């Protein structure tokens, strides 16, 4: 751990934190200062931050805007739109002048 960061403040990675947590149950609190470079309150603080990052629900959040429709609803809307386009084309070919039968009479 210490060999990787020879100068400045020591920053422990996730693997180092796991080692400290595993060793902490084997050593009494009185001898912590002799064995560990961190205080006993540091391990629960690391755990709190880990849990906070894990359960902040950021993966569920989406960007701004409208929610997406399910595929079944989207397919139904597309089918209705296609049917309406066909009906409009059929009506346009039946009445090339653009007038309905009621107006022409």
Report, as a whole number of angstroms, the end-to-end distance. 94 Å
Give the strand tally: 0
Tell me the helix content: 40-55%
| Global mean pLDDT | 80
Show unreliable segments. Answer: none
| Largest sheet composition | none
Strand coverage percent = under 5%
Structural class assignment: mainly alpha
Sum up the overall morphology in one term. rod-shaped
Radius of gyration over C-alpha positions, nearest whole angstrom: 34 Å
Write down the oligomeric state. single chain
Order of helices and strands: HHHHH
Structure annotation, total helices:
5
How would you briefly describe this protein structure?
It is built from 5 helices and no strands.
